[in-house]
Amino acid sequence: MRLNGLGIFLACSLGLVTGHTSAEDLKVACPEGEHGTALLVHVSNIRYLEGNLRAQIYGSNPDDFLSKGKKLFRIDVPVESDGEQDVCVPVPGPDTYALVIMHDRNANGKADFFTEGFGFSNNPKLKFSPPNAEEVMIKVSEGILEVPVELYYILGSDDGEAEKRRKMRRR
Q1: Is the pTM of this model over 0.85?
Q2: 32: closest CA among 7, 56, 59?
Q3: What is the pLDDT of residues 105-161, one digit of tens each?
Q4: Phi-psi category of 97—alpha, beta or left, where left has phi over 0 and alpha has psi -120 to 50?
Q5: CA–CA separation, 145 vs 127, rounded Å?
Q6: Handedness of CA 79, 83, 88, 94 (dihedral sign)
Q7: Phi (first) and psi of residue 149, to 5 degrees
């Protein structure tokens, strides 16, 4: 069964699946896009049960990676589980892409780097700057590609630790 653009968007906007293991289950959980292509992103290390998970897709041009107005597709889904959650992300077709996942804890649509989680395709080691585009590019063929992404939170995992850091800065 093929879905049109609106059907793909609506199906992927739900973005929530759990426990799907067979190829048939994957097709139900994450319907393929117009060109038979989608990513089923397994997001792990979700530390807070609040806000949205935002998935953004960038094309194969390294100059476009993380550049304003250059993303090919973006989808926001509510966080439904702390720990792990799957998100279906349609892509235009077989090609090379970069995937960015952000845990937008306050659902304001902005990247609050010190309080929100970030992850990328290929799970590069993150420091205080984003990875190079080449580190996160993934080759996507027709069908559904499962992509694991672990979120990284710059300032730790809980509000208690953040409060301790704030107090130390005040000294």
Answers
A1: no
A2: 7
A3: 999 989 887 889 999 999 998 877 889 999 999 999 989 999 999 999 987 655 555
A4: beta
A5: 27
A6: positive
A7: -135, 125
